[in-house]
Amino acid sequence: MSNWEVVIGLEIHAQLATKSKIFSGSPTAYGAPPNTQADLVDLGFPGVLPVLNQRAVQMAVKFGLAIDASVAPRSVFARKNYFYPDLPKGYQISQYELPIVARGSLKVMLDDGTVKTIGITRAHLEEDAGKSLHEGLANATGIDLNRAGTPLLEIVSEPDMRSAKEAVAYMKKIHTLVRYLEICDGNMQEGSFRCDANVSVRPKGQEKFGTRAEIKNLNSFRFVEKAIQYEVARQVELIEGGGTVVQETRLYDSDKDETRSMRSKEEANDYRYFPDPDLLPVEIDAAFIASVRASLPELPDQKAARFAKDFALSAYDAGVLSASRELGAYFEAVIAGVGAGHAKLAANWVMGELSSALNRDNIDIENAKVDPKQLTGLLLRIVDATISGKIAKEVFEAMWSEGKPADAIIEAKGLRQITDAGAIEGVIDAVMAANPAQLADYRSGKDKLFGFFVGQVMKATGGKANPAQLNELLKSKLGGGNA
Amino acid sequence: MLHNLFIGELAERLTKRQISSVELTRHLLSRIERLNPGLNVFITLTPERALKDAAAADARLAAGETGPLLGIPLIHKDIFCTDGVKTSCGSRMLDNFIAPYDATVVARLKGAGTVMLGKANMDEFAMGSSNETSYYGPVKNPWDTTKVPGGSSGGSAAATAARLAPFATGTDTGGSIRQPAALTGVTGLKPTYGRVSRYGMITFASSLDQAGVFARSASDAAAVLQVMAGFDPRDSTSIDAPVPDYSKALGTPLKGLKIGLLREFFEGLEPRNAALIEDALTVYTGLGAETREVSLPHLPLSVPTYYVVAPAECSSNLSRFDGVRFGHRCKDPKDLMDLYKRSRGEGFGAEVKRRIMTGTYVLSAGYFDAYYLKAQKARRMITDDFRTAFDKVDLVIGPTTPTPAFGLGAKINDPVLMYLNDIYTIGANLAGLPGVSIPCGFVDGLPMGLQLVGPHFAEAKLLNAAHQYQQATDWHRHAPRGYE
Fold first, then answer.
1. N or C: which end of chain B has fewer CB atoms below 10 A?
2. Banded pLDDT at A483 (limits 50, 70, 90)
3. Residue numbers in B near A278 (CB within 8 A)
């Protein structure tokens, strides 16, 4: 295994978040009853013609600018010809020789914290096909053309990735980016974001690429990772066993965790691409590009850099907190409440308690049961020493399940820290009186028993004694200062 | 008789309430009933709808509304989708297809108050030059019913010549309006590519298809084009340019008009045909026009170029006819491949299959560069030739076809011989130029056409030149015997 280098390129299909389809006026909403969102254009009726949705063009340009690519002043729609029942016209309108976006790149942070630049060969606009339905139909196949004509941006990477993990990191970064740009909802279960992986292996040090297999239609990060891992192992085993990899299309079966051959290169269609004569070339001028550029939001890398600089966060923390626009916004809302001086505290809480609660309950940050204002309320009580960090975790859990503000829970549960020196002294006195032997030992030089007395006082106060105050008072009392 | 009147004359009588649209429609319907069986012009007749449309037009007229086409009957080539009416495109494939919407051309003409009498026969999917590839049988030429009317808009041409309607719509992908207009002795106009919307016109070759009109005079054609022309947001290839007043331009004197004679058109032209063109030129010089010879050196590449480009596009355009959603579906398909193969095998005729196969071949990996790309280059050279010519002259003139109408069955088994019929007309399609064919005399008792081709959007100039000729001659007034 270690003698082999893995080479991966991804073709990601991002469904563009336009209201209507790429060449017709039908809506793109997901989940409608079959064939209720397909008009005559989507159905490929005789005589109808496609008209390009300008929003889709705008979105593609947005993406191109975000990956520092060149946006083609002139791109051309082509027809990819093949017969299939869910392809109403008998051809898919796509872009072939002249895509709208070419030669971009994306920086991806790997697990070890290093940053790798992945090349993006091109991104082109195309229409999606419909779906074939088999369930509940005896001896028949149903065709649902709701999805036919939905705009897709196909993002093709260079073969720059060297492991399944790198591929996933790249795919996640694209996922983050398209949602930042609000050009794709990123919903992988509904198929809004999916990819094909081109995988090959070659002996380490060899320049020439090995023969690749293309694994089709992977719709989760986990499947991408597992499918690539399986495929790499299969190819290595095949070659080491004296066989050769054939160029083919394979399908990943997630139930069996394996890839299977779908069709070989020899069986592949000749798609007979040619420019679609029903559509004019897409011409994009500098003014249009400038207007799209002006509409670009702060991008993930820009946000991460700003977080690191303004809030003195590590590159890792800044990266995590900017991984989605929503998470970044949540974090910034908390910072606005607690002040930039407590950024590290805010970061720890957002990345720690909040994220684990979200993961545990499997909900999005927009629906978090503790909103930024409530979390701010809690953190302020840590800052002003009303409660300790430890107690705060308990309060957070209660806020999450009861939906009440921090102060209400602190009051109701009596979790307010004891900061009254007299009260703490009283408890210390009682603890000293109850443990004369330990007191004697301490005073004769067993410094380590200090912790014992801290524990006893905390136990007696239900953990509410202000730790700093307790330390100070205890030191003085045990030393016999006031006795 | 009413059927011999031109559109302008009919409109005047309708406006003055001397005749009603219902009366005119009834007259033409009874004429159709009597004469159509000998011609086979119609795929579908819509008499009830026609009378309803006519009554509606009469109501508008009674309310004081006027319009150049209000209450005027017409026939649509069966390539235009007509809401609720069978739209077969001359094919068994669409014999069961009731269009669920109106083509833009149909909607515009409907809005202008025209009355649809029916749908005209045509070569299957507009692929043919004789109307013999129609699933519904050939149309006969009213001048001699043993001859073809030309194609692909043969039904529209024959119906106009036989005075079954004052005008008819057609489409011209590679001469399909001008050639049948010439062979049936009527005026046929193919506008600039993009001038008239293609939406709802069943596609043959997207980059070449253009809707146009058959009428009995250039002046009538101008009135119809006025309604048909204009930008359509549903057709990305339609052009957003102002539509001039075509009828108004008809009075322009031809003094100083520079007419180009295409050397390539006259080489090898049959002497009697050449003589008619010479006569026409004499008329034009008499009207003050100047003639000079121009050359389009790449024009001889037109036919081979066309027979790569058009089949390539059609092979893809006709893929949607797969038996899945509409059109012919074979009985009891045993699997998907069987459904495709038999539905298409049964639904398409021989000429359509020939072109689909040719087109599939020229787009295939390994042949694309040698055929499709090369044809695109040739197309550009032909277009450039025309551009150069139009730097020197206002329009070019020549014969529309090499010969008059040929016998039914004479060329149907020899595709190349058939394709050569369009040798003079195809160049304008490849270059996207407007062209008009007008009657200019007879050879062996059969009409011949004079073709005028102009620069992009020169319809007004072309129609005026045709109109001036028709003012000076009466070839366009001749009616076939039995159809006067």
1. N
2. very low
3. 203, 206, 236-237
pLDDT at B401 over 60: yes
Q: Average pLDDT of B21-43? A: 98
**Amino acid letter at A318?**
A
Yes or no, beta carbons of B313 and A277 under 8 Å apart: yes
Question: Looking at CA atoms only, how far is residue B199 from chain A in angstroms?
Answer: 6
Which residues make Cβ contacts (< 8 Å) with residue B241, sequence separation at least 6? B231, B457
Alpha helix (H) residue ranges in B195-256: 218-228
Widest distance between CA atoms in chain A = 102
Contact between chains at A274 and B206 (C-beta distance less than 8 A): no
* Contact at CB, A44 and B320, closer than 8 angstroms: yes
| The pLDDT of residue A482 is above 50 | no
Q: How many domains does chain B have?
A: 1
Fold of A421-478: Arc Repressor Mutant, subunit A (1.10.10)
B77 is catalytic: yes
Q: Cβ contacts of residue A107 below 8 Å, gap of 6+? A: A115, A116, A117, A118, A173, A301
User: What confidence tens digit (pLDDT) does each residue in A416-454 have?
Assistant: 777 788 888 888 989 988 998 988 899 888 888 898 999
CA distance to A133, A160, B278, B389, per residue, from B256 (Å):
69, 68, 19, 17
Copy the structure tokens of residue B417.
């011989």
The pLDDT of residue B255 is above 60: yes
Which of B383, B382, B391 lies closest to B292, judged by CA?
Answer: B391
- Interface ipTM above 0.85: yes
* Alpha helices per DSSP H over B170-262: 178-184, 218-228
B152 counts as catalytic:
yes
pLDDT tens figures, A312-351:
999 889 999 998 899 999 999 999 999 999 999 999 999 9
Q: What is the CATH number of the domain that holds B251?
A: 3.90.1300.10
**Is the whole-model pTM more than 0.80?**
yes
How close B484 comes to chain A (CA, Å)? 36
The range of the structural domain enclosing residue B226 comes to 2-257+392-477
